[in-house]
Amino acid sequence: MAVVASAVVAVGTVTGVVSATSGDKDRTTASPEVTRTPQMPPLPAAPSPSPTTASPSPTATATATKKPAPKPPPKKKPAPPRNQSAPVSGSLYLHPESQVLDWVRANRGDPRHALIQSKIAAQPAAVWFAEFNPSTITSRVRAVTAGAAAAGRVPVVVPYAIPERDCGGASQGGAPDYGSYDSWIKKFAAGLGSGDAIVILEPDSIALTECLSAGQRATRFAALSRAGQAIHAANPRARVYFDGGHSGWHSPGKMAGYLRQANAATSSDGIFTNVSNFHRTSDEVAYARGVLAALGGPSSLGAVIDTSRNGNGAPAAGQWCDPSGRALGRPPTTNTGESRIDAYLWVKLPGESDGCKGSAGSFTPDYAVDLANG
Q: Can you list the positions of beta strands (E) in 17-160?
């Protein structure tokens, strides 16, 4: 049975800001061959403490007083669960560096300028970090979050460097191993500052794992759990969302099962859906709530939905590369009016091609106009 997936193609770095492009594609052939994910060696099991008991002392007489046995040490109370950060409610940040903004600045006399400027370039969008760059990732993230803090706005950032990214597909790449990834994500987190931030953690990293073995999948899920914890430790006000696929892919129950293995209930603040895809907002709202219900709590978990290209819903099955007849979706906002839906976001920047109407990842003005006109 064909699986409709979301594939993200990331190209074009501008001072650390990465544009991304993707869409639906039918996987009707064998999964691409991937290099075996390095397995993290298991930690040695901690020995269980043995209760301390007194050695019996021989009694000199029958009337000798026995010493009372020492009381066992009190059991430690389990650590309380982490309190999820409250959903952000501020205005979203429009980062001043992107391909669409570059085009707008360079093409003021173009007849398409006004439409692209008002409909797309003026909207806040996510900033992607898809380069494995340990030496510069902190400063590049900090440049975005510091700009957002100065403007009193909330940035949306996308770390995208998980090992075996995209299962060897068009967006293959990422960190060379999970030890390197752990270090990179901590450096990413160090750039988040102390203000509100929305983190879209590794698109496709959970929904697109069936090309991995069970062991590889477990290794990845453990790394995502650590990543969520590292981000929260660096900035407790950062709201971290884990990959939830989309309504045309896995069932809510199956997706919740994967999220449970990644410790989403304790390491995340919820899920993101529809990244770089086209499914209608109403379908995604119902799907996201279904996943959260199947996950089973806590009730503070929410969802964010990518609405950048879903104004007319999904195209016919198999059409994923810049499909015709699509439209911009709802503008980005943290005021959705929907319970458990924390934000509508433009994670995928409209107008960046999937590789058919322009080169993969490039801003293509004719495609942007098509989306703006719907």
A: 17-27, 127-129, 156-159
